Amino acid sequence: QQRQPRGVEQILADSVRGLRPHPVELCAQGFCIPPRRMIVHDDDGAGRVQGACDAGADAARGAGNERGSAVEVAVGHALLPRRLRRWPTGYNTRRFEHRADMLIRDSLPAPSSEAQAHSQRLLQHVRADIEAEGGWIGFARYMDLALYAPGLGYYSAGATKFGPAGDFITAPEVSPLFARCIAIQCAEVFEELDGGDLLELGAGTGALAAELLLALADMGHAPGRYLILEVSADLRARQRLTIEAAAGELAGRVEWIDKLPQPGIRGVILANEVVDALPVERFRIDHDGISNLGVGVESYALQAVPKPAGERLRERVEVLREDNDAAWPPGFTSEIRLDLDAWLAAVYDSLEQGAALFIDYGLSQSNYYSAERAAGTLRCHYRHRAHDDPFVFVGLQDITAWVDFSALAGAGIDAGFAIAGYTTQAQFLIGCDLDGQMIALSAQGRGTQLELAQQVKRLTLPEEMGERFKALGLTRELERPLRGFALRDLRVTL
User: Fold this and answer.
1) CA distance 487 to 465
2) Do 406 and 456 form a contact (C-beta atoms < 8 A)?
3) Distances 92 to 88, 89, 97, 342 between C-alpha atoms, Å
4) Which burial class, exposed, middle or buried, applies to 352 when counting CB atoms under 10 A from its CB (0-12, 13-18, 19+)?
5) DSSP line for 394-440
6) 10 Å Cβ neighbour count for 133?
7) Angle, to 10 degrees, between the axis of helix 405-415 and the axis of helix 340-349?
8) How many of the other CB atoms lie within 10 Å of CB of 446?
9) What interhelical angle do 449-460 and 8-17 show, nearest 10?
10) Looking at the DSSP assignment, which residues form a beta bridge with residue 289?
11) What is the pTM of this model?
């Protein structure tokens, strides 16, 4: 009896079990993906996206060791267990923290002299801000300066951020399949609205925009306008070059804007890996209450400096503890986005009718604030190394925190959105015709079957991007269900 070639779904399942498919089968396999057989894991079973940092892994960015039992940072060819944040409050850990931070710095590739000079200029700016505020600022303020200070912050300056030459790789750079699946979802909304516009919040390299324009045009649903909200002049220039080179005449539909549009658009708002870069406040549970882990200066160096939490932060943390029945031990440290409600309200006002789609690495609230995740999810990314020191190479590294999707969904409801669905990235892509898009790309000669199968693994395997990344759909005045959430809707976990 002739042996039947295995589908990509079976290849993915074998990868989870550690089996290597025969190369002949890989080259011969078809593109049928029975989605309901896809292996999926619970949120709390997820591990790291980055992998071995010192090996120069270029996996998509995400928080390492999200369980929080012992934060691991790259040090040469080893991983240094760092349990400092879990030691009892009041224990003198400063000299050990300094030593660990120096090990982190020494393990990372050295910036150029020009980059170091740029970092020093931003440090001076941050120190001046701290001094003006009396010697202490909240971490959200620091994160905002480090990432977005005009002309100086990580996303505002001109260094390469995305791709092999940058600090991390996002899904649009992994495979055009990602954009083509999102295009399926966008086309469905445009069909319901009889046309519409597309607004992308932070377009990265422009790869997602270029592929979306091409795919939507192929489907007969090219957006009337493709709006890009981008704060970085440098990224705008790079996006323009990418889109013009790849999308041809369709690039004429693209407009760059400085703020959310008013009145709002009819169509789709897309935010891929945006919410993780919104500033967070950090808090710590101490024996005598809740501390706000802000930023100060000691010996001319930036340091994490705790102070008693103010009323707003204290009340929000107490609500988190009560809602999740959390038994946090002293030293438990995590993050919260206090301004998320206001941000979602502004997004709501910019959408007159249609859908907003958020894709990012994150967790439901009960998992995010589990006592086991005692060090939080804050992560920094520099030259494809992940670590947890936000004061290293300020302005030259990305600073992120995982997304609390329960909070994101709740803020959406408060703003006026309806929740259309919540699921893993893997299930969303499969629900948006991943197998059909693979066939289409193969027919166009845009990758061998083996290459496309490897891209699918990267996008959908649990230990890659498939489980750590989630998709949340919010709608306004749109009755039609979104197909990306039809296979496995996890709203009950929010």
Assistant:
1) 18
2) no
3) 9, 9, 10, 38
4) middle
5) TTTSEEE--EEHHHHHHHHHHHT-EEEEEEEHHHHHHHTTHHHHHHH
6) 14
7) 50
8) 13
9) 60
10) 286
11) 0.82
> Which residue do the tokens 């850990």 mark?
93
Cα 340 to Cα 38, 49, 240, 356, 476: the distances in Å are: 33, 25, 29, 15, 18
What pLDDT is recorded for position 71? 27
Joined together, the tokens standing for residue 445 give 């000669």
Amino acid (1-letter code) at residue 16: V
Work out the number of other CB atoms within 10 angstroms of the CB of residue 326: 17
* Helix axis angle, 207-218 to 176-193, nearest 10°: 50
Rounded CA-CA distance 189/193 in Å is 6
> What strands, in cross-sheet order, belong to the sheet with 301-308?
301-308, 289-298, 281-286, 333-336
Distances in Å between the alpha carbon of 35 and those of 38, 92, 98, 434, 439? 5, 52, 48, 10, 16
Tokens 């999200």, residue?
Answer: 66
Taking the chain (494 residues) in consecutive chunks of 10 residues, what is each chunk's mean pLDDT?
44 53 33 30 36 38 38 28 31 42 74 92 97 98 96 83 72 96 98 98 96 98 98 91 97 97 96 97 96 95 97 97 94 98 98 98 97 96 91 95 98 98 98 96 92 96 96 97 97 96
- Two tokens, residue 130: 């701290």
